[in-house]
């Protein structure tokens, strides 16, 4: 089986939107679900590895003071930079997680359709990086496709179970449907109402 990087190179060679992020209703709805699940209105600094052509990054920029976006594919990085050129708060770089993880603190980490490409050892490294860089009031959100995907190392269910165990964070929300699985964890586990002092 070809590596994800090789497959991505082939996909981007024939399309600037190989997963239909702009056109497909599933992708547009998934982004809106992801944004709606965020428990806070604003974040200081978000990290989105696997940003692809920057469609989710653009939405994150409306809720975050700064967004650090990363993708392993050079063409994806070019497309994301073009898509986000009018958003100075978004910084796009080329790199591969979990090893090329920024050495700074984030109060939002977004894993969208990326973690099932990792084996168990890489998931452990991913969790270590999350624990080391997620702020004391930070949010981790993960959303993954639940159907079979040839390049995926694990299922969405297995990945989210591993993240829950390895990151050891309180889970405050879960959304399940036939196509996707979405989980939200926070360092403190407080509800929005508690944070606003109304509960």
Automatic annotation (TrEMBL):
InterPro entries: SAM-dependent_MTases_sf, SAM-MeTfrase_NodS-like. Gene3D superfamilies: Vaccinia Virus protein VP39 (3.40.50.150). SUPFAM superfamilies: S-adenosyl-L-methionine-dependent methyltransferases. GO terms for molecular function: S-adenosylmethionine-dependent methyltransferase activity. Pfam families: NodS (PF05401). GO terms for biological process: oligosaccharide biosynthetic process. This is Methyltransferase.
